[in-house]
Amino acid sequence: MSDASWLSEIPQLDRKQLLDIRKTLDGAYREFSREYGDTIESLFDPLLSFLIWFEKLLLSSPWWLIIGILAGLAFVASRSWKLTLSVAVAFFLIGFFGMWDNTMRTMSIILVSTFVAIALGIPTGILMAQSKKARAVITPILDIMQTMPAFVYLIPVVMLLGIGKIPGVIAVVIYAIPPVIRLTDLGIRLVDKDVLEASTAYGASPMQRLFGVQVPLAMPNIMAGINQTIMMALAMVVIASMIGVKGLGQPVLKSITNQYFTLGLLNGLAIVALAIIFDRVSQSYAKRTQAHLGGRD
């Protein structure tokens, strides 16, 4: 029996039945969004207020102060003067080429989204490491989140909350959160069992064992997850601009639709610069953390 004839014997829904199912699901979601959309949106009001305040703070602060703070944070994390100088030069060039405001808008939403992803992702990863049942439930969800195209899950978010900053944050968090969850789970499960048995023998409680032994030893993996989360959040900048998120993504999108090569190139390079800076700083901090745990300065 050929493949074509075998497939033809499988019962299939006719076009009318399929259309009826789609109409039913679309209608149910529309009714849900009309009835509960405003209530759900109000839950995010504190986050929206903080995001607006943080963006205004970055935009209103003197450029030299922002560069000084960012360079100082880079030095504290890496203890490298070369990386610190590179951060200062990169942000100076961003401002010199007229992309300062959009870069600050992008940084505000990326930093807020990353902090939300970390606040949700690390406890979820710990839960997965502690419970096989939780891992069995959460792992397929993470698989779906990582494989589904970003444009697909933008649809229900936009239908429910409209366009703006909060839908953008939600989209970025959904896209960027899986790495920190997976690597937190992996890092905690890779902690040597002999170390855990020793801590138990010394009378450590489960909470003391978790936060005093497992989480510190898993920190290099957790930091790697945070690093990947930041990278994936930056990768969402252009897509998020399609639902009203201001920043470096909007000029890139404008350059695509209007064929402005230089505009797209410069703003694209600014996104790349942010990605490299965040990547190098977080990796340097992770290496220092690992060296500290290994007893090296």
Helix content: over 70%
User: Main beta sheet: strand number and arrangement?
Assistant: none
Structural class comes to mainly alpha
Mean pLDDT: 84
User: H/E order of the elements?
Assistant: HHHHHHHHHHHHHHH
- Record field, number of beta strands: 0
Tell me the strand percentage band.
under 5%
Spatial separation of the terminal alpha carbons: 69 Å
Low-confidence stretches: none
Radius of gyration (CA) equals 23 Å
Overall 3D form: flat
Q: List the total number of helices.
A: 15
Please give a structural write-up.
The protein has 297 residues and is mostly helical. It contains 15 helices and no strands. It is flat.
Topology readout:
Layout: H1 3-8, H2 15-43, H3 45-60, H4 63-78, H5 81-96, H6 100-130, H7 132-147, H8 150-161, H9 165-176, H10 178-189, H11 193-201, H12 206-235, H13 237-241, H14 249-258, H15 261-293
Tag the structure with descriptive keywords.
single chain; 85% helix; 0% strand; membrane
Quickly describe the structure.
The chain crosses the membrane at residues 57-76, 83-100, 106-129, 150-177, 229-248, 260-278. The protein is mainly alpha-helical and 297 residues long.
